[in-house]
Amino acid sequence: MKYWLAKIIDKIDFQKKSREKIAKSLGISGPAFSKNLSGKSELDFLNMVKLVEDLYEDSLEIKYMIHEFCKKTTSKKNIRIAMEYGNALGDLELLRIAIQRGFESNNAKTYEWAHVYELVWLRAKKILKTDEFLEETENRKKSKVLKNKETKIMYDILTLYSMYDCRDFNFLNGYTETLQAKIEEVSNQFIKDLYSNRIKEWLAYALLMDNQIEKARDLCHSILNVNDECGYLRLLKVSALGYLGESHVKNYEQSLWYLNKGIEILDQLYFEKADNRKKEFLNMRSYLRMIHQKDMHDLQIFDVGEEALWYIVKGEKEQAVTILRNYEKENGSLSPMKLCYLGMALEDEKLLKKSIELFYSQGCKFYSYLPRKILVDINKNGIIYKGDVK
Predict the structure, then answer these.
(1) DSSP label of 66
(2) Which phi and psi (to 5°) does residue 226 adopt?
(3) Which residues of 68-90 are buried (b: 16+ CB within 10 A; e: fewer)?
(4) What percent of the chain has a predicted confidence (pLDDT) above 90?
(5) Which residue has the higher pLDDT, 151 or 129?
(6) How would DSSP label each residue in 283-297?
(7) What does residue 206 show for φ and ψ, rounded to 5 degrees?
(8) DSSP E strands: which ranges in 32-75?
């Protein structure tokens, strides 16, 4: 830690920053900050992040300093907070480092956190398939008696995410209300904010898929309205913006506004999870532009389905069919949306109806709006696609 602290002190001195002002910005006293810098006491993890982000501009340097602090900290609390911070910001390398430190710890609470957050990391890295993840989560719950409030709640949250992955939204309000009541008993505000808003995020998506659009929007706005001076809710706010964008898909300008706001936030983040989310947002924005046939000069497509849709929009339906059939051959089946695109390309009402059935069976009624709209167009106008969903 001495080398880490020396770098911080050099940076403060080089930038001629007042230590008193820095301490005040961190919400601690000048003497307490002096002890932190001398190594007599350790910085709180979140204060460390604030300090590093204040002193450094380059994202790689910021990551390096945060990761190095996590490798060297002797505070068990800091290790635990680092796990959730890495999860919240999508910094999967930080999460991995903190988990490793947790498993090496002789502190029972920290070890238990590592046991749970390893599952979070495995899911984020897509190392376990959906059914494997659910099985592993249940096995770990049974194999270890959980003693900590936070880890019990985190297992419940992992159960929700297993339901998300399986598109099983049967619990909805009842289960999440019980879980929110448990979260209210958590003393750490950082953990409480993240756990509470993560459940809101899951429920917003579940309500949207169930076509309870206004309730979903209300939840999304409640996430966006949470004060987040430290920025650790940014990915959850991005999710809320994405769901709002999808919920307004029939209104091109409004949907585009929400998606662009999400992309703006993602541009400020520099972690693996944020990169993946940005591709999803860009793909969704391209989808929006194609179904409305607007602003199609700079599409950024990252999915085979939307690639096929692009050919359909251009009138090259045979190419779209080839892409989708090849995908089906390689993967064994088509998702409901890809099946919808195939129905559009082949002008096949049966495939469109099958797409709707699959959306409903998978608990995603909301997404069935496109094949339903296309079928209405066929019945009204005798055409398979006319370029908008209004």
Answers:
(1) H
(2) -70, 130
(3) bbbeebeebebbbbbbbbbbbbb
(4) 73
(5) 151
(6) HHHHHHHHHHT-SGG
(7) -60, -45
(8) none
Question: pLDDT tens across 258-272, in order?
Answer: 999 999 999 988 888
Contacts of 317-324 with C-beta under 8 Å, sequence gap 24+, read 317/344, 317/345, 317/346, 318/345, 320/344, 320/345, 321/345, 321/346
Strands (DSSP E) along the chain, which ranges? none
Rounded Cα distance, 27 and 339, in Å: 55
Return the biggest CA–CA distance within the chain.
Answer: 78
Q: What is the pLDDT of residues 320-335, one digit of tens each?
A: 999 999 999 999 999 9
Task: Measure the CA–CA gap between 27 and 31, rounded to whole angstroms.
Answer: 12
Sign for the pseudo-dihedral over CA of 90, 93, 94, 98: positive
State how far the alpha carbon of 41 is from the alpha carbons of 21, 84, 146, 342, in Å.
Answer: 19, 22, 30, 63
Q: How many CB atoms lie within 10 A of CB 92?
A: 17
Q: Is the pLDDT of residue 64 over 60?
A: yes
Query: For the chain, how far is it from start to end, CA to CA, in angstroms?
Result: 60
pLDDT, tens digit, 9 for 90 and up, residues 187-206:
999 999 999 999 999 899 99
What average pLDDT is seen over the chain?
Answer: 90
Q: Which residue has the tokens 């049966």?
A: 350
Q: What gap in Å lies between CA 5 and CA 70, rounded to an integer?
A: 13
pLDDT at 383 over 70: no
Q: How far apart are the C-alpha atoms of 240 and 219, rounded to whole Å?
A: 8
d(C-alpha 111, C-alpha 241), whole Å? 35
Phi, psi for 185 (deg, rounded to 5)? -85, -10
Which tokens belong to 64?
Answer: 């390096």
| Residue 209: closest CA among 249, 176, 241, 168 | 168
Is residue 178 over pLDDT 70? Answer: yes
Residue 381 token pair? 């106008």
pTM of the entire structure? 0.89
Q: pLDDT, tens digit, for every residue of 107-149?
A: 999 999 999 999 999 988 888 887 788 888 888 877 777 888 9
